[in-house]
Specification:
- The protein is mainly beta.
- The chain folds into two domains: about 70 residues, no CATH class; about 50 residues.
- A five-stranded mixed β-sheet has the order 3-2-1-5-4, with no helix packed on it. The protein has a three-stranded antiparallel β-sheet with strand order 7-6-8, with helices on one face.
- Strand 2 and strand 3 form a beta hairpin.
- It is elongated, with a radius of gyration of 23 Å.
Length: about 140
């Protein structure tokens, strides 16, 4: 027997008027999905819909059928993306002899990788991309 479950989450609105003239960081649609991974959309309730479910709703009616809701974490819009700081990334190369090399990730990463891949003595056994920290912690 098939379970009658839909997965719901709040997502930024798709309404072009709100995006252009309103406050899109405050307006959310509710999207329903067939799967927990949110790969297969089923229905969308726009921000001004009177039938839009809220977190306190456990069921929703779509296409004359009642579905059980499981809520997923919301997708939020940040008002000012310029203040978000991204950590500097480092690529670690772990070698078979136990050595570890850490190099800044960026445009040079591809050239660095090609240099190591050209010499079989330096072939990495594992590659890790991590945030740059003092002393490699």
């Amino acid at each position: 027997m098939k379970k009658f479950i839909k997965y719901a989450r709040k997502e930024p609105t798709t309404d072009d008027v709100v995006k252009k003239y309103g406050q899109p960081e405050k307006v959310y649609d509710v999207q329903l999905y067939d799967d927990r991974a949110a790969k297969h959309p089923y229905a969308r309730f726009v921000w001004n819909s009177s039938a839009k479910p809220t977190r306190r709703n456990k069921r929703v009616v779509v296409n004359c059928f009642t579905w059980t809701l499981k809520w997923l974490p919301d997708i939020r819009v940040r008002k000012n993306l310029s203040i978000v700081t991204k950590p500097k990334l480092v690529i670690e190369y772990h070698y078979a002899d136990g050595d570890i090399g850490a190099y800044p990730a960026g445009g040079e990463a591809q050239k660095l990788w090609e240099g190591f891949a050209a010499n079989p003595l330096y072939e990495p056994t594992k590659i890790v991309i991590r945030p740059e920290t003092p002393g490699g912690d």
